[in-house]
From TrEMBL:
One of its GO terms (biological process) is porphyrin-containing compound biosynthetic process. This is Heme chaperone HemW. It comes from Hydrogenivirga caldilitoris. It is found in: Cytoplasm. The keyword Transcription does not apply. Transmembrane segments: none annotated. Belongs to the anaerobic coproporphyrinogen-III oxidase family. HemW subfamily. Pfam families: Radical_SAM (PF04055). GO terms for molecular function: 4 iron, 4 sulfur cluster binding; coproporphyrinogen oxidase activity; metal ion binding.
Amino acid sequence: MVKGIYIHIPFCSYKCPYCDFTSVVSYPLKHEDYIKLLIREAKLYGDVSAKIESVYFGGGTPTLLPPYLLGKLLEELDRLFNLSGVLEITVECNPETYRYNEFKELLSAGVNRLSIGVQSFTEKGLRILSREHSVEESIRAYMDAREAGFENVNLDLIFAFPEQKPEDISTELNWIGSLKPDHVSAYMLTPYGGTPMGNKILGGEMQTPEEETLEDIYTRLWKGLKELGYGRYEISNWAKEGKECRHNLLYWTMEEFLGLGVSAWGFLEKKRYGNSKNIGSYIKAVSELKRPVQSEIGLSEKELYEEELMLKLRLKWGLREEELTLVPEHLRGFFEVREGKVGIREEFMLLTNELITDVLLYNSDRNITEVRNG
Ligand code: SF4
């Protein structure tokens, strides 16, 4: 049963040097025509059984498109999949794009959650990340969204970028404390090879914080967010009570979802599929009424379980107490148990990937039914 729809909008007004998402700065395709293609693609999934809880517009920069176009797509999705039971419709927004009027229009179109790509509340951070907006613009976008009536707003932050100091975290936290978003996502900068910044970091031309500094940065961040009343529910995500992102939770609990648009990923009938990353190929396939799928990965029971286990370990309280047996004894000190749930201790979050690898290895030869039952 499909519960979510992810829509990828592959347009940006500039390319950030660290970004490896599929997005283009100029392409001879009108935004309106891209929406028509998305509608056509959605119709190719008209026969799936769906009870949609969440729709998510990601990118790229969805807010490069006028709100009425996003609304038009939502109307079609409603006709096709019946969105009456939908709980969350999120749009990712760059701070320099929308103002009060656009936010009002977006609300009228049914969008009820915003995710604003602030990335840093320090001008230094924005300069290093080569973002084309100022701190002031981020604050203004947030205030306009609130004034327009958005009651569920996430702010996206990046940490561990070159030149970031542990002391800089207090500026990020001060703004979070005064703006009071409902949700905060804080992602550690990943140096992807093939991106200008990733190449420089991997080639030694640019340095990200040393391990000790990184630990200090992360500790200040999670402690500060906790003091401000945010609960961490996944390795990179914090929320006020009841404001956890439903869309991400669908991914993390292995629910089925459709991915529409260039480079979008979906999960259907135990298969992960990825759409073409090339806009030309995407246009061609959809114009010929073919699903623009470029890759499809069928997952065996064992692979499905491993993926489920990995996602559970990324969640703060993803494992049941009975499932603690999945963790080798010598690693149990890294975990804590509360109210029947198990999670990695806050202070060891930076070790999550290593812990996941060890837990998966420990269970790799075990019988899947035995493992499933903990
Ligand atoms: S605005 Fe977002 S999607 Fe576009 S290039 Fe920058 S990080 Fe990537």
